[in-house]
Amino acid sequence: MINGCQTGTRVVEPNRRSDVKVLRVEKGLRNFSRIGYLSSDPLTFPNKKSDKPEAFIALWQGALKTLAGLPLEVVDAARGFLQTQWVVDSQNPNHRFQVQIIIYPSQELRVEAVTVELIHQRLKDGIWMLTRSSRSGAQNIKQEVLLNARANLAMDREKALEPE
Description:
The protein is an alpha+beta fold. The chain has one domain (5-159). It contains 3 helices and 7 strands. The chain has helices spanning 24-29, 54-66, 135-161, and strands spanning 5-6, 72-76, 81-84, 87-89, 92-103, 114-124, 127-131. Strands 1, 2, 3, 4, 5, 6 and 7 form a 7-stranded antiparallel β-sheet that branches. Strand 4 (87-89) and strand 5 (92-103) form a beta hairpin. The radius of gyration is 18 Å and the shape is elongated. Mean pLDDT is 76; it is low at 1-35 and 37-48.
């Protein structure tokens, strides 16, 4: 998906001075623990025998396929949450990004069932500072998740129709 990127950068917490604006995305980073579990067992992974809706499973698999080229830091199937590690572009080492995807339980493949946050930071005076990222990047990732989910769901339905 993304060429010329590498990981393993030194993580420096953003400066928490009062004159630094806190972006909506940064506020969301603190709220991960508030996401409720989608099943009673937080360690269950969505599969064909799962009690989760078929659309949720397809979206989960679509998100995993979309992020396949990036190193994952958090994979929580019970909450429907994926987060990549920080990825640094080898062409521009002063910029890095992270992708967060939340999948909500849904009976159908819907745009509202997927939330994508693209967090972008730049290095300034040795401190990683949050910067605004374009909405189009998050929208492109969301569209790819939905396309992969539709393809997965179509393949699963074809397999179900095949005689054994």
